[in-house]
Specification:
The chain has helices spanning 2-37, 47-68, 74-94, 112-123, 125-129, 132-136, 204-210, and strands spanning 147-149, 155-157, 166-168, 176-181, 186-195, 201-202, 217-218, 221-225. The radius of gyration is 27 Å and the shape is globular. Strand 4 and strand 5 (186-195) form a beta hairpin. It contains 7 helices and 8 strands. Helix 2 packs antiparallel against helix 3. The chain has a domain at 47-106 and 141-225: Beta Barrel (Barwin-like endoglucanases). Residues 95-171 are annotated as: Disordered.
Length: 227
Amino acid sequence: MSRRRTLGTKKKLALLVSAATVAGGGAFVMASTSNAAQTPKSSAESTVCLGLATALGNNQKFIADQRANPDAQSEARIANREAVVAEIKRKQEASGCVVGESAQDSQTAQPSQPAQSAPPQSQQPAESVQPSQPAENPGGGAAGSGQQVCNGSTVTLSGEGGAPAASSNQFPVGTKLKVTNLDNDKSTTVEVTSVSGSCVLLNNAAFEQVREPGKFLIRRAVIEKVG
């Protein structure tokens, strides 16, 4: 009888060890799966992350430009944009994106190209007629109420608070721009209040008026100068 009890105890111990091993392995698999699910996404993997990375890149470029060519207001502007950069990084973390990933807007390099080709365009009647045609065709629609500018530009947000406004590297303070999101036909007309690294960069309030839920980048936008 004592031998049977001894063997029974050994079997029980072996079963307990085996169960603990299986449980530990399962926990390891679950932990590995959890860690994999939490891996931050890059701008190439998510539209949200791309929009935040673009906004971060534009603000960092603005800060670099202000430091390279400072004036009496540069220190205040830099302090403001550094706060915006910190806010964008918090949004990157909250959205599961790579924190600190910066992507300079691909459209920021384009303003110099139209400037170089402007003289030939003004001399060619066919090209000068084309901008007026879109304005006449959709006369009563969301777009076409002003001079279309920055063709092909994407639009993202600066991360700044306050009333709806915009910043631009092409238009002076006081210029009024109308931005239409072609993906949802929403539009907003805002005044340029500061300088940025892209054709038009909307602050938080303005971007909320035209954004699609969960997106921080407008790929299909019409930008018009209306004042």
